[in-house]
Amino acid sequence: MKVKTILVSQPEPKIENSPYFDLQEKKKVKIDFRPFIHVEGVAAKDIRQQKVDLSQFTAIILTSRNSVDHFFRVADEMRFKVPDTLKYFCQSEAVAYYLQKYVVYRKRKIYVGKRMFADLAPLIKKYKDETFLLPTTDKLKPLVRETLNNLNIEWKEAVFYKTVISDLSDLANVYYDVLVFFSPSGIESLFHNFPEFKQNDTRIAVFGNTTIKAVEAHGLRVDIAAPTPETPSMTMALEKYIEQANKGK
């Protein structure tokens, strides 16, 4: 069956040269974007109930842009002046670069991992005498806790923001040829909004093994999977599938 419409369960890219826009133009398909989940900040009073005193920490571990935004939001709500001496341990260059939104980069002590959380472990271990805060989501991966516990450091996890299911009720009678998912939370949102969802001829595109497992656990069929050696990105996987499905179009 041919592919004419695609729904990506993420916000629309803000960059003009997104590969999704290139794909849309090249393959003459319609691509819509709609976040199936969104992030909401936890109020400062609720963070205090987690027994978090920002002044007690000498280092902060930042795993995403959300963690950066919500750490500084909470500091502002608590009227806490972030000290210049605070050390920042960023999971990736993208997170470290985003930090510039809030601090003068060259005047701060910033340590950057390669991409995966495990890559950050050796850097954290070098500074094992620091007291670390991990501002995080309510969906923290167990691997992060395991990694930090194995380092024998003083650290505390605190939920600064939560992943919340978006209201998709306006899509009840809208059909797409392909639905694209990037996390198990996206699948959870699909069934929360549409408990009676039947896949039928809808193709499901999935990024990552944990998301594949979530799709299969709901009895759905994975039609397009990424990353693979041949198609390391979702747009490449979609393009390859569309080329096959739309032959002779």
Task: Outline the structure in words.
The chain has 249 residues and is of the alpha/beta class. The protein has a domain at 57-163: Rossmann fold, CATH 3.40.50. It has helices at 19-27, 44-48, 65-77, 93-98, 121-126, 142-150, 184-193, 209-217, 234-245, and strands at residues 5-8, 30-33, 37-41, 59-62, 87-90, 109-112, 131-137, 154-165, 178-181, 203-207, 224-226. The strands form two sheets. It has a six-stranded mixed sheet with strand order 3-8-7-4-5-6. Helix 7 (184-193) runs parallel beside helix 8 (209-217).
Q: What is this entry, summarized?
A:
The chain has 249 residues and is an alpha/beta fold. It is built from 9 helices and 11 strands. The strands form 2 sheets. The protein has a 6-stranded mixed sheet.
Write a concise keyword list for the protein shown above:
11 strands; six-stranded mixed β-sheet; five-stranded parallel β-sheet; Rossmann fold; alpha/beta; elongated; 249 residues
List the helices and strands and how they pair.
Blueprint: E1 5-8, H1 19-27, E2 30-33, E3 37-41, H2 44-48, E4 59-62, H3 65-77, E5 87-90, H4 93-98, E6 109-112, H5 121-126, E7 131-137, H6 142-150, E8 154-165, E9 178-181, H7 184-193, E10 203-207, H8 209-217, E11 224-226, H9 234-245
Helix pairs in contact: 1-9, 7-8
The CATH architecture of the domain at 57-163 can be given as 3-Layer(aba) Sandwich
Indicate the overall shape.
Answer: elongated
SS-derived structural category:
alpha/beta
Report the major sheet: 6 strands, mixed
Helix amount: 25-40%
- Write down how many β-strands occur, each being a DSSP E stretch of 2 or more residues: 11
**CATH class label of the domain at 57-163:** Alpha Beta
pLDDT averaged over residues: 94
